[in-house]
Amino acid sequence: VAPTTPVCEVPSSAMTGTVVQMSCKETEGSPPSEYQWYKNGVALLEKTGTGSARAANVTYTMSKKSGTLLFNTVTKNDTGEYFCEASNGIGLSQKCRVKRMQV
């Protein structure tokens, strides 16, 4: 079954240095969808909070399986327009509406 349009939760604003978690979920897809987050139209790399990610100045952890995008400490650089895409290899992938987060 192809995925439906995912529901994205993106805060409209966040304080610098706080923890921010974004979520993305759709329930119709079978097999279960994988989720890809985008910032300003660019795909975010999957990072799991390892040492190499820190070296690259990455402040987030993204899980393709659960659809969560977690910022341990947001900075002004994290301000932007975010959306998520759900895909499971069947039918077309589905995107949620772009939401802007202001830090």
From TrEMBL:
<keyword id="KW-0796">Tight junction</keyword>
<dbReference type="GO" id="GO:0005923">
    <property type="term" value="C:bicellular tight junction"/>
</dbReference>
<dbReference type="InterPro" id="IPR003599">
    <property type="entry name" value="Ig_sub"/>
</dbReference>
<dbReference type="Pfam" id="PF13927">
    <property type="entry name" value="Ig_3"/>
</dbReference>
<feature type="domain" description="Ig-like">
    <location>
        <begin position="3"/>
        <end position="103"/>
    </location>
</feature>
<dbReference type="InterPro" id="IPR036179">
    <property type="entry name" value="Ig-like_dom_sf"/>
</dbReference>
<protein>
    <submittedName>
        <fullName>JAM2 protein</fullName>
    </submittedName>
</protein>
<keyword id="KW-1015">Disulfide bond</keyword>
<keyword id="KW-0812">Transmembrane</keyword>
<dbReference type="InterPro" id="IPR003598">
    <property type="entry name" value="Ig_sub2"/>
</dbReference>
<dbReference type="InterPro" id="IPR013783">
    <property type="entry name" value="Ig-like_fold"/>
</dbReference>
<keyword id="KW-1003">Cell membrane</keyword>
<keyword id="KW-0732">Signal</keyword>
<dbReference type="GO" id="GO:0098636">
    <property type="term" value="C:protein complex involved in cell adhesion"/>
</dbReference>
<dbReference type="InterPro" id="IPR007110">
    <property type="entry name" value="Ig-like_dom"/>
</dbReference>
<dbReference type="GO" id="GO:0007159">
    <property type="term" value="P:leukocyte cell-cell adhesion"/>
</dbReference>
<dbReference type="InterPro" id="IPR042625">
    <property type="entry name" value="JAM2"/>
</dbReference>
<keyword id="KW-1133">Transmembrane helix</keyword>
<keyword id="KW-0472">Membrane</keyword>
<comment type="similarity">
    <text>Belongs to the immunoglobulin superfamily.</text>
</comment>
<keyword id="KW-0393">Immunoglobulin domain</keyword>
<keyword id="KW-0965">Cell junction</keyword>
<dbReference type="GO" id="GO:0005886">
    <property type="term" value="C:plasma membrane"/>
</dbReference>
<dbReference type="GO" id="GO:0009986">
    <property type="term" value="C:cell surface"/>
</dbReference>
